[in-house]
Amino acid sequence: MRVARFTAGSDPAYGLVELEADGGKHPDTIAVISGDPMAMAVQYTGERHDLADVRLLAPVIPRSKVVCVGRNYAKHAAEMGSQVPATPLTFFKPNTSVIGPDAPVLWPRGAEEISFEGELAVVIGRICKDVPADKAQDVIFGYTIANDFTARDWQRNDGQWSRAKGFDTSCPIGPWITSHYSITDAQNLRLVTKVDGEVRQDGTTADMVRSIGELVEHVSSYTTLLPGDLICTGTPEGVGLVEPGQRISVEIEGMGTLENTIMDQQGQQQEKAEEIR
Hints:
This is 2-keto-4-pentenoate hydratase/2-oxohepta-3-ene-1,7-dioic acid hydratase in catechol pathway. The chain is mainly β. It folds into two domains: about 1-55, SH3 type barrels (Roll), CATH 2.30.30; about 65-270, Fumarylacetoacetase-like, C-terminal domain (Fumarylacetoacetate hydrolase, domain 2, Alpha-Beta Complex). About 15% of the residues lie in helices and about 40% in strands. The protein has helices at about 75-80, 150-160, 160-165, 210-220, 265-275; strands spanning about 1-5, 15-20, 30-35, 40-50, 55, 65-70, 90-95, 100, 105, 115, 120-125, 140-145, 150, 170-180, 190-195, 200-205, 230, 240, 245-250, 255-265. A hairpin with a 4-residue loop joins strand 3 and strand 4.
């Protein structure tokens, strides 16, 4: 099951995505639903759109937080000149950093170096605290793809990561939420990141230092998780810098592809001027 948030020219709505690869009766369509997907209390409205005719939005806007995990892949830690931390290294991105597929990543004013980090993100399905690792699946609604954009110069200079990781549009997610019922083993999925079609990251979630269950346990030990909160589980090796105009795609096996383009300040100004006109 794939849950998407979208607009067909009116208010945002939720729908269930059916792809041609599924062998369904209505290939590449989205069936509109009413209700709260997180509460699993939804109904089909009978309305259906071709997927190509809608604009996909961020599949969820976290009610309180995005929790990210740093250096959770040993080879990525090494390429950054660091060691795997003794305990999970976590930080927050504000919900204002979240954007959807195909939305532009806006280059923050004053930053000079922007890097991508393709990641698997866990979508929390219910309020929880102090969740044991072996019970983590009970609180997970599903998974989505994330790209943890980072201003590397700010990260080096600030001594902490709030500005470098939390700027507006720094957390694209999507294209939808894939239910945990649809993924046999989230701990063994291939992840490939491309920049303008060139492969930069080619890894697997099997290489996480700490498993999804361990991360849920650790994060929920110090903060209450709410429905719609995200845990970004870290990135494989191969991260690198991008330039304005480049298009970055992150594909995770069985989950689809998240694509976004970097927009520079001049492009931002031009877009605003067009909106005014």
